[in-house]
Amino acid sequence: MTAPLLCERSLTKAATAVRQPTYDRQRVRPGIVHLGLGAFHRAHQALYTETLLERGDTRWGIVGVSLRERRVPLALAAQDHLYSVTERSGETTASRVVGALRGALYAPEAMDRVLGAIADPGVAIVSLTVTEKGYSIAPAGAELDAGDPGIRHDLMTPDAPRTTLGVLAAGIRSRSTSAPLTVVCCDNMQANGDTLRKLLIQYAEQFDPALARRIGETIAFPNTMVDRIVPAATPASLDAAATQLGLRDEAAIVCEPFTQWVIEDRFSGPRPAWEDAGALLTRDVHPYEAMKLRLLNGTHSAIAYMGQLRGRETVSDAMADPAMAAFVRALMTEDLLATVTVPPGFDVHSYCQDLLARFANPTLAHRTSQIATDGTQKVPVRWLPALRESLARGIERPHLERALAAWLHYLATERSDAGTSLVVSDPGAPALAAKLRGASTALDTVQAALSHTSVFGATPWPQAFAERLARHLQSLRRHGTNALLACPAPA
Ligand code: CS2
Predict the structure, then answer these.
(1) Which ranges constitute the DSSP H helices of 259-372?
(2) Is 371 close to ligand 1, i.e. is its CB under 6 Å away?
(3) Ligand 1: centre distance to CA 283 (Å)
């Protein structure tokens, strides 16, 4: 028998161990508009906010907006905007139902309501998780990609936008100038708040210079570091959640117990006391952000591309592969760690040990194919700054260089070591892959990649570096990843 659908009325039928909202949801007013209603937001920022609602601060209900994906807002609307989060690790499983969402809008069909929500003077925060590619950014230079078709469309019809920047700008334009606003970017980008501010101003300048000035002068864009491993839902994860809940939840999330949020304390107007829910409000997020982007996300991307080439479906499968586990540990604790500035008083060695344990969590089924998406956006943030800085000081990063060669090989061949075809999901990949495939020798291929400036930047890369990458690529072509992983790292 199928379990009843999760909604206000069916809550009484939820399994007794499942935590439920104890506050009166009817009293909660919308104070936050969130763009990007994916699993990450619902398992991360929404839970910090849920804690504040539980403590009686009813100002911070969330209106969630999905810019592209229709399934989740529809599912949420059918469930009175309730959904569950199940944390899993080893033998431990804990589920809760979250009530913080007060609306779930699918932007293409509800643009007036989306813009109205952003303009609502009761709303003090617009937060975002739209993924790296959701910002119409040319990643290497962190500038607005003026050629982006969505941006070109929005500049023609700024009041009927479809991009993130277009929606934000149109919402702000219809908002009273006397209502202060803070925009909280929660995507994995360097200086994410500063970057979004710059992009939004660049966009607004092209059709409304007064709006651009207003954004620059009155709206705060704190930088943030967000962390929680939240695999995309699968039929199996939805079934597992239903078993836990005793209710069917089409928006259920299964994730790890760990969560971290570091936010720059720079707001314009009122803000939720997220620190009461465990967030760290600080003057300088940069060291946390660089550390997390490199050690966690940088290693994750290497696991994803190597894992895809080696037929490892999930991160924990990859970590159970001894050759990969050794490579991953060395990449993180030798190459990447050497490039980060550790926040004062922070125990980075236990941070690394914890990361390795989090990656090995076998109950999560975090697919390497998920992390492998959008490499042309991720690699310039996660790997290239560490490589640039190291090479400028004459230092080689043997594992990171091998990971980069593996990514190029993955893009060029779209095949695993065993010859199975791989699905590359990255709108920026075809242009780069075409250049890779158009070259003949390994060195030509590497040169073709390094001259793809939207990913690798305009500053030339050292010839010796290109030659090392070419040797790794050659080794991959001949012997697959085994040879590359077995290569002793130069002293
Ligand atoms: C992952 C991240 O998909 C990816 O690229 O590296 O989503 C990662 O799981 C989170 O940033 C962890 O906080």
Answers:
(1) 286-291, 299-309, 315-319, 322-330, 348-360, 368-371
(2) yes
(3) 24
> Which residues have C-beta within 8 Å of that of residue 105, sequence separation ≥ 6?
63, 64, 65, 66, 73, 113, 114, 117
Strand order in the sheet with 260-264: 224-227, 260-264, 280-282
Which of 44, 228, 297 best tests ligand 1's pocket when mutated (most atoms within 8 Å of CB)?
297
List the strands of the sheet with 92-98, edge to edge. 92-98, 83-89, 253-255
Q: For residues 469 and 264, what is the distance between their CA atoms, to the nearest angstrom?
A: 38
Tens-digit pLDDT profile for residues 412-470: 999 999 999 999 999 999 999 999 999 999 999 999 999 999 999 999 999 999 999 99
The reply to whether ligand 1 has any atom less than 6 angstroms from the CB of 228 is: yes
* Tally of CB atoms within 10 A around 259: 20
- Biggest CA pair distance of the chain: 66
**Domain coordinates in residue numbering, the chain:** 9-282, 286-486
Position 1 pLDDT exceeds 70: no
Q: What are phi and psi of 301, to 5 degrees?
A: -65, -40
On average, the pLDDT of the chain sits at 96
Predicted pLDDT at 146 = 87
Contact between residue 169 and residue 161 where contact means Cβ atoms under 8 Å apart: yes
Q: Can you tell me the distance from the alpha carbon of 50 to that of 101, in angstroms, rounded to the nearest whole number?
A: 9
Q: What is the DSSP string of 382-412?
A: HTHHHHHHHHHTT---HHHHHHHHHHHHHHH
Any ligand 1 atom below 6 A from CB of 379 = no
For residue 423, the CA-to-ligand 1 centroid distance in Å is 19
Looking at residues 362-390, what average pLDDT do you find? 97
Per-residue b or e along 190-208, where b marks 16 or more CB atoms closer than 10 Å to that residue's CB: bbbbbbbbbbbbbbbeebb
Domain 9-282, CATH: 3.40.50.720
Q: Which CATH number fits domain 286-486: 1.10.10.60, 3.40.640.10, 1.25.10.10, 1.10.1040.10?
A: 1.10.1040.10
Taking CA atoms only, the protein residue closest to ligand 1 atom 4 is 371
Indicate whether residue 188 lines ligand 1 (CB < 6 A). yes
- Interval between CA 285 and ligand 1 midpoint (Å): 18
Predicted local confidence at residue 142, as pLDDT: 84
Q: How far apart, in whole angstroms, are the C-alpha atoms of residue 409 and residue 266? A: 42
Cα of 261 from ligand 1 centre, angstroms: 14
Q: At 65, phi and psi to the nearest 5? A: -125, 125
User: By three-state DSSP, how is residue 89 classified?
Assistant: strand
What whole-number distance in Å separates Cα of residue 63 and Cα of residue 121?
Answer: 14
Task: Indicate which residue's Cα is closest to atom 8 of ligand 1.
Answer: 229
Average pLDDT score over residue span 117-133: 97
Coil vs helix vs strand at 257? coil
Q: What global pTM score does this model have?
A: 0.97
